[in-house]
Amino acid sequence: MLTSVKTALTAVIMRDLRRSVRRSQDFVQPLLFFVIVIALFGLAVGPDKEVFQEIAPAGVWIAILLATTINLDRMFLSDYQDGTIELMILSPTPLSALVGAKISAHWLANACPQILMAVILGAILGLKIDVLSALGLSLLLGSPVLSLVGAVASALTVGLRGGALLLSLIILPLYMPTLIFGMAAVTNAALGLSIEAELFFLGGLAFLSATLAPLGAAAALRIRLAAT
After folding, report:
1. 10 Å Cβ neighbour count for 227?
2. How many CB atoms lie within 10 A of CB 90?
């Protein structure tokens, strides 16, 4: 039983990753948007390194938050349109587990390249090692929350006309705690302060989201299918 579940989850992750590679805009557009936002922050600040060090955490976190929302509305859309969601519900593998696999694939295809790019850009722009480390750790802990929370809203709005706008209105307020703790961690690192508390809260948010979000997204998909 466990082997069949593991095989099913791996198949879902690999299928979604291959789909992202085939439809390159699914991960190229968010990554390009992320880079453009960071570049605009740099241009707005100008050559003043001290000012840039102060606003860099906010810039990176806002950029990755906005980039994450670009293709969230498509997380379940193709599966909803071609009937795959119905097959997932009928599968012996729990729907919440399959949804969790899809969320994992979304995070791997979108957030991971952005985290890597954030660290590279930070190094190019002269951020200190302590700040880069805090940035990388905070993004590794916080970015899964963005995908997990976004998945619930994506499932609630899948197939709706104007769903992308409604999705943004739902998730942006829910992203605020992650944004606040993520920026605070990097800011504290820049000031030479401890970041343990912020990372602890980000880890707690990630654990809570990983526990509840797949269940919520699975329930939302059932509701959407029942409504059609």
Report:
1. 8
2. 8
